Amino acid sequence: MTIISETIAWLTDPANWSGPNGIPIRMAEHLAISATALFVALLIALPIGLWIGHTGRGTRVIVNGANLARAIPSLALIGILVPFTVLIDPQLGFRVLPTLIAMIALGIPPILVNTYTGVSEVDADLTEAARGMGLTEGHILRSLELPLALPVILGGTGSATVQIIATATLGAIFGFGGLGVYLTEGISQNNDGMVYGGVVLVAALALTAEALFTVLARRLAPPGVAVDRGSGGRTAGATATP
């Protein structure tokens, strides 16, 4: 059998869709930890990105630091965290916490950078006109800059989600569940169908998540705002009025 036929056979085997090690359970585990990491990353990155995008303060240090963090290999980061997290909890500190923290850390940069980019590139004439109308800085951020930057922010969130889903797969090496289990078990059992079946499931999950954020970004884009995903997302031609 070829790898393709073995993968299809494994994915279509009803036995792999039931039980505690079945695909639905592993998918639920993968989604749960990914959603948790994304939520925490948003809580951290979004306010910082909005603040530096609106004020322009600390931009160089924060954005450069976020971009530098993107270069850290996922597995290396998890390995660095393990000695510290096991001190917090011997069980969760090895199986869950290092992977979760690494997912959060790797999800922050694209959200932060895109949020900063989206807000900072809103037409300065619009913000000055809003100030001339007597709007407060907080009102300008909430009612003008954030709506115009939203498609770019969602683009960064989609990129972060893909990074998080991919990193969650590595957690299986340290005993966490999720779809990564199929890769580790498949390699140990010399089962190519399981290995590549796991790869297909992870890829499908990541692509689906990114597609959802792309559609959402386009649907929520205000009139006159274009979304350019190829350059990381940016606002262009904003014509809305405050």
Q: What structural class do helix, strand and pairing data support?
A: mainly alpha
Number of strands: 0
Order of H and E elements: HHHHHHHHHH
Count of structural domains: 1
CATH structural class: Mainly Alpha
Q: What is Rg?
A: 21 Å
Beta-strand proportion: under 5%
- Terminal residue distance: 63 Å
Task: Name the CATH superfamily classification.
Answer: MetI-like
Helix percent reads over 70%
Model regions low in confidence, pLDDT < 50 over at least 5 residues: 229-242
- Overall geometry: elongated
Largest sheet, strands/sense/barrel: none
What's the pLDDT, averaged over the residues?
Answer: 86
What is the fold named in CATH at topology level? MetI-like fold
Number of helices: 10
Second CATH tier, the architecture: Orthogonal Bundle
Keywords summarizing the entry:
242 residues, mainly alpha, 73% helix, elongated
What would you note in describing this structure?
The chain has 242 residues and is mainly alpha-helical. It has one domain: MetI-like (MetI-like fold, Orthogonal Bundle). The chain contains 10 helices and no strands. The chain has helices at residues 3-11, 23-55, 59-69, 74-88, 92-95, 97-120, 124-132, 137-170, 180-188, 192-220. The longest helix has 34 residues, at 137-170. The chain is elongated. It starts with a helix and ends in a 22-residue tail after the last helix. The model is unreliable at 229-242 (pLDDT under 50).
Spell out the blueprint of helices and strands:
Layout: H1 3-11, H2 23-55, H3 59-69, H4 74-88, H5 92-95, H6 97-120, H7 124-132, H8 137-170, H9 180-188, H10 192-220
